[in-house]
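Structure, all two chains, one model.
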Amino acid sequence: MHKLTVAQQAKALAAKEFSSEELVNHYIQRIESHDEQLNSFVTFTPEQAIENAKQADVRGKQGGILNGIPIALKDIFCTDGVKTSCASRMLDNFIAPYDAAVVTKLNQAGAVSLGKTNMDEFAMGSSSESSFYGVVKNPWDTERVPGGSSGGSAAAVAARLAPASMGTDTGGSIRQPAAFCGITGLKPTYGRVSRYGMIAYASSLDQGGSFGITSEDCAYMLQAIAGHDARDSTSVDQPVPDYVAGLNRSIKGLRIGLPEEFFQEGLDAGIAEKIQQACDVLKSLGCEIKPISLPNAKLAIAAYYVIAPAECSSNLSRFDGVRYGYRCENPKGLEDMYLRSRSEGLGEEVKRRIMVGAYALSAGYYDAYYLKAQKIRRLISEDYRAAFNQVDAVLSPTTPTTAFKVNEKSNDPITMYLSDIYTIGVNLAGLPGISLPVGFQQNLPVGMQLVSNYFEEQTLLNLGHQYQQQTDHHLQMPKEFE
Amino acid sequence: MALSTEDIRDIAKLAKLQINEDELDRYKQELSRILEFVEQMNQADVENIEPMAHPQDMIQPLRVDEITETNLREKFQCIAPATQDGLYLVPKVIE
């Protein structure tokens, strides 16, 4: 059953080939027998899952688009009554008192949560090594990282411990782990999916999205989670199209741009070759491939590492040891309680980013850092706007290398930051992006990123689906987990 | 931008973080390197460029001033480190 996609499972459930209870039980057993190698789950909720699966079986055809389908949630989405830790000691004791909007929507669609997945602490990282609960491993090679920050959600789908999962993407945190783990990952347009109840890192960049085996499965997930929510003031009130129905459109005549800046030094030659082969497939399907330019793309990482830390230093000021979360032992006074609760409760990378942000926002430095970064953000966004006058989608590798080794970059923040070079500009512009598996380089998955204009997720899903009709890279799975 | 040990102490104070003496040097180096890295931004000519805060340049939506949330005080307080009589407890501030 675990080799089936969400779409196939939904059909099998509707045809009563198996029940949701049987399906969920199967995944529970897989998690129990395989997750010790990966550490992809932080909180596993099998009893609740069985209970919800039974209810899904009762609903049957009256249920929603994901009725009875097991999923996993990144531990950044608040789930009522379930520990929601953000992989931080700060929230190790935090039982969320309400559901995130995404969780409510997935419940309404009938999905069954298997549990909460591991991640970089507060979503700050590109390797899932900074979790309070330990490093997550890549199922293709357990000496390597699954990418991050949504590494647990990506590893779980790659190892088929869940058919689909939810992640969040602030600088590449869905697309990069999808590429490293050989699965499909969709980051929707900023504002497409509500951020209500999604623990904030950098609010102007954060966006929830999904992982699946196929582009079609990401369409099922997006159908369930997209839509306006008055509780998130940055959520955009735009109609939600029928993403699943749009998958079968012909992609003939679609124009695809290759940014010349993304095919220069630093890109692994093997990856470049796989991307070329994927372009050839799209060309054979009638797409027109042409060069484009994103002249300010090189400034994206620098601007990001001002904007994201600035927003994080503000967002994470809420962790004060007063109302929830970690409080230090025997505080000597209020100030001591703030200082020690925060210093003991937060990890290294989180503290580093809070400090960079506090500095960038401090008196006398605002214009030189935050304001300048927001202006560069405009330049990057204008580059994409100009590109979308000429093309329907922008194509590049998702990452400059395949999955790196555990500890390879964890002692050097800057090297780690550079691994997000192709993904980060998309967040600054607020555009949707998808990563699709396009083959293997020395037995490690390679991902291709497609980016489209605002609210044009259907173009990405359509291109992904048509590409996946011609290829089988997305159906490969790591031998140890078959 | 090279930061001094004193800068790190100031930043930590702003961020309400306690940095131990033996960590100061490491933070000094790491933060200086990050700030040096982001100085790449100076390559860009941003004169007359409007800063961008939201990708859709949205205006702040307003809603009618009506109560829409239910009171979940007890649920919220049961996950607090210390409460009494419906209030959050912190260490004594005034003697």
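Residues 5-42 of chain B form one domain.
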